[in-house]
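User: What would this chain look like folded?
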Amino acid sequence: AIMERQYQQRVELHLHTTASDALSVITPREAIETAIKMGHRAIAFTDLNSMQNFAGIAYWHKKYRDQIKVIYGVETLLFGRPTTILVKNQEGLKALYEVISTGECTAAQRENLLLASACSDGVLYDALFDDIAHPLEEIAAQYDYIELPTMVQNLPCDAVQRLYALGKKMDMPVVAVSNCTYLEPQDRLSAEVLACCRRG
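Assistant: Here's the prediction, encoded as structure tokens.
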């Protein structure tokens, strides 16, 4: 019962599908059906520089519309580094297409979007580990929330604590995300091979 309550409270806000070129082995159907089985109330799709699976996501969401909410998004270059962008509404979906096309985000577009620090690939994380002192609050102010990877073994404990403290100081949500690229343990190797190929 405790585990079930934990699943019900979970919402994945950073998941990649096969539209993330050479990165993920997850299809939209697998993502939605797995999230439902785990009791998630919503799931965000954040493919890397791609909205190619939006049609597939919409198709499978229609079949399960009464069981889960789908949040459309991307992980893309903004502010000079990969940023996670989620849409708030239908206007946000239009704004997202415009942002992807231009590489810029206006104040008007921003009203219908949520921007996050893009897991461990964003400028905020780089600033944590750079020897040069950076105005972390100034960087974080560009975003609506801070992403904290659940694979925290890849981050020093003090970095996790600093990110959490930064969010609390600025009254910003700090959200644990998986940056998910596979669902089953046996698929991990396939996802890692894809990632190696992508790095070249």
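Confidence is low (pLDDT under 50) at residues 1-5. If you want, I can go into more detail on any region.
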